[in-house]
Amino acid sequence: MGDDERVNLSFLLAEVTRLLRAAFDQEMKRLDLTRSQWHALIYVLRLKAASQTQLAEALEVARPSVGTLIDQLEKSGYVTREADTQDRRIWRVVPTEFALARSEEIARLAESVANNAFGGLSQEQIEAASSVIQVIRQNLAS
């Protein structure tokens, strides 16, 4: 494209991200999860009992969109909504036993993608790349 390696790296990062998402999509099809669903489910599992607003912020989508995803995950048996003990207006999205059991399979599938994506790289190379990407992330977030 040009001589600015920073611009070239930006496009490379975008391409790698796209390919990683596609690889995860392929693996998560085994669990009948769409990209939006598996992405939301990962955050539900990580955040434990997040509110719909917290999930929307984490996923960077509007609350109604998250509501639709939660509905889908609830119908599939992955999550339930529980009333917040402190504020009756808030519903917490909680992973079900089914989701927790499936989380092990999700982790195995994710590890398979990681093994493929990072094959041939040393731990030091992975740590160095992660460090660089963290700095880029911090620069963009500020």
From TrEMBL:
One of its GO terms (molecular function) is DNA-binding transcription factor activity. InterPro entries: HTH_MarR-typ (IPR000835), WH-like_DNA-bd_sf (IPR036388), WH_DNA-bd_sf (IPR036390). Signal peptide: none annotated. Pfam families: MarR (PF01047). Gene3D superfamilies: Winged helix-like DNA-binding domain superfamily/Winged helix DNA-binding domain. Keywords: DNA-binding, Transcription, Transcription regulation. Residues 6-138 form the HTH marR-type domain. This is MarR family transcriptional regulator. It comes from Henriciella barbarensis.
